[in-house]
Task: structure prediction
Amino acid sequence: MSFLEQAWYKKAGWLILLWPLGTLVQLLAAIRRALQSVPIRPDKVSVPVVVIGNIAVGGTGKTPLVIALINYLKQQGYKPGVISRGYGGKGASYPMLIDAIASPRIAGDEAVLIARQCDCPVVIDPDRNSALQYLASKAPVDVVLSDDGLQHYKLYRDIEIAVIDGQRMFGNGFCLPAGPLREPVKRLDSVDFVVINGANASAELRNFIPVKMEPKFLINMLTNEKRPFSGAPFKMGNTLQAVSGIGNPQRFYDSLAKLPYPIKQYSFPDHHPFTVEDFDQAAIDEHHPVVMTEKDAVKCVDFAKAIYGIYSLRWNCPRSF
Result:
């Protein structure tokens, strides 16, 4: 976590100096929303569109919720598709229809993770409207989920779902750069559903959906062996090497702390493009297991055989939605 992020969530007093800039960002967000929002379904949008996003920077558990919703919709007989910005990827051209074998370096870690876990069509494009039209033309989908894009107002949406981190909530409640918010908290009054991941009852919000995502399995990257996240999944005497490149790794670290092993933490920037050299420079011990989030682990598949015992942590998202 950067110095500024720590200040937001510790509610450092000096951030009041940035409050005028935060107020300007809040005003510009409101103007942008008023000018760009699409209140009436365009003729070219023939399927329901669900946007899952957040109002704060950093990780909130949005992608696991998207995956859970896709799997639920498939069980109900729907044919969902996903559109995503493909953040962190460097595609040569857009829109791009990706599949389970796509490279995270091209398509971005979140989009590839969704494609691999859900076996559904995923289109990436910084322009969500372009992605939506391309998806509709290339795949027989009857509902589209937008992974992120709450602030992408040019995209028509039938349903908005905002995901909140139940541990960090809204920090000091200020908009960027004075605080972590892209839009003010009152923006939540206009969304259809507010999902709080690891919900702590808050007087600030009403009618929210509490969701507690719990660790379910540890999955070996090479063999796909699943080890239940309970008891002692590894030999006693091991040290868990927790490697992360996500916006808010603390929940990940706290979850691993429930296992009976000492933990070494290796934190990298959000969406870090992992290479084997990162593991070498961090002096990762090949004789002890490495545990990563699935979003990070998908970026290590190509060189996993060079690292002993890389496991990804799979979360269970209950169907309280």
About this structure: The mean pLDDT is 91.
